């Protein structure tokens, strides 16, 4: 079974260089992109021994969705740039792995088709839907209703994108539009036209309240890094937070996610779950995040590398590698389950 870095090397060989840069790149000097991984490397594990952890159980639960392991698949755009089957292959692999796929609003496959593919692979797959709130509330509501009818179980609202990040690789490459034949299928309106995703710096907590009134499904916010925003989210009745800096693709020099995590965990004080997203490449990273207060982690780029390298089987390879490494690290830290991990195991 290959490592994630080995899969990335294969993906880089197979992808169009412009498309590789789209996935791999980030904003500005890409300092935050590198910091996400480096911050995990700076932290060391201090394992416990003689804890009787011969049998381990990685299963957990997030806002009503069961996960066979504390790893879910974060929303990433344009999977059909990486492989012809795109999100369909990803959905099947994630469903078979028994974890959550967060469907990107910017998917190149419609949410209905993604849901059908997941149901072909598993009896009751868990899909969530990532949402950029749009300035047109009627269109936003129409997207919400489509996702609900498709059977998603939660909405993940990206809140760190008042404007698009400056991704200099894309500017240098002139990558601004999808190739002919590919569109963002979840942005079709009632007339069949495909809209552009619109960012707005004018959104406030009232727009989150509007979404909470609009859907009965759980609502998580993705892109929260400041403890005060975490406290406000708890007060607003948000169901969970994704600790994320958008993989470094929005604000360069933003704090790394694992550096931000402890203060956010203190701020929410267990009132709502935290998902750490960004920089996870090994099972040791998963365990460090769980010990510091996350209920689960999300992975984005690793899934794209697996998809580009070997389609559905490549995504499976990524997820099973993380499952095996997480289980192995739990054993070496004397833990039988994610809930046994505590912050004193990490320095």
UniProtKB/TrEMBL annotation:
The keyword Transcription regulation is annotated on this UniProt entry: no
Binding site for FMN: 75-77, 104, 130, 158, 222, 244, 277-281, 300-301
Pfam families membership: FMN_dh
Principal EC category: oxidoreductase
Enzyme Commission number(s) of this protein: 1.-.-.-
Residues noted as binding glyoxylate in the record, renumbered to the chain: 132, 167, 246, 249
Signal peptide (from-to): none
Gene3D superfamilies: Aldolase class I (3.20.20.70)
Coiled coil (residue ranges): none
Cofactors: FMN
Keywords: Flavoprotein, FMN, Oxidoreductase
GO CC terms of this entry: cytoplasm
Molecular function GO labels: FMN binding; oxidoreductase activity
Active site: 246
PROSITE patterns: FMN_HYDROXY_ACID_DH_1 (PS00557), FMN_HYDROXY_ACID_DH_2 (PS51349)
Ranges for domain FMN hydroxy acid dehydrogenase: 1-347
Protein family according to the UniProt entry: Belongs to the FMN-dependent alpha-hydroxy acid dehydrogenase family.
Name used for this protein in its record: Alpha-hydroxy acid oxidase
């Amino acid at each position: 079974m290959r490592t994630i870095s080995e899969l990335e090397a294969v993906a880089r060989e197979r992808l169009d260089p412009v498309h590789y840069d789209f996935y791999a790149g980030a904003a500005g000097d890409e300092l935050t992109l590198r910091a996400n991984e480096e911050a995990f490397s700076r932290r060391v594990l201090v394992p416990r021994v003689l804890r009787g952890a011969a049998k381990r159980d990685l299963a957990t639960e997030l806002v009503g969705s069961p996960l066979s392991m504390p790893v879910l698949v974060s929303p990433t755009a344009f999977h059909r740039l990486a492989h012809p089957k795109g999100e369909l292959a990803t959905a099947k692999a994630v469903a078979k792995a028994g974890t959550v796929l967060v469907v990107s609003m910017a998917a190149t496959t419609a949410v209905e088709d993604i849901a059908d593919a997941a149901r072909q692979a598993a009896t009751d797959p868990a899909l969530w839907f990532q949402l950029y709130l749009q300035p047109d509330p009627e269109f936003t509501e129409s997207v919400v209703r489509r996702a609900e009818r498709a059977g998603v179980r939660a909405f993940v609202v990206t809140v760190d994108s008042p404007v698009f990040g400056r991704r200099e690789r894309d500017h240098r490459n002139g990558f601004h539009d999808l190739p002919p034949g590919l569109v963002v299928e979840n942005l079709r309106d009632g007339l069949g036209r495909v809209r552009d995703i619109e960012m707005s710096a004018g959104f406030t907590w009232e727009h989150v309240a509007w979404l909470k009134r609009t859907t009965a499904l759980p609502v998580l916010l993705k892109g929260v890094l400041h403890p005060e925003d975490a406290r406000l989210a708890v007060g607003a009745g948000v169901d969970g937070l994704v600790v994320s800096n958008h993989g470094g693709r929005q604000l360069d020099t933003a704090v790394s996610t694992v550096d931000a995590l402890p203060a956010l965990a203190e701020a929410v004080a267990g009132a709502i779950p935290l998902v750490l997203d960004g920089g996870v490449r090994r099972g040791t990273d998963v365990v460090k995040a769980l010990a510091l207060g996350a209920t689960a982690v999300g992975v984005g780029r690793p899934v794209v590398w697996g998809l580009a390298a070997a389609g559905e089987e490549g995504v499976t390879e990524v997820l099973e590698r993380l499952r095996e490494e997480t289980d192995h690290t739990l054993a070496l830290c004397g833990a039988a389950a994610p809930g046994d991990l505590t912050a004193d195991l990490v320095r």
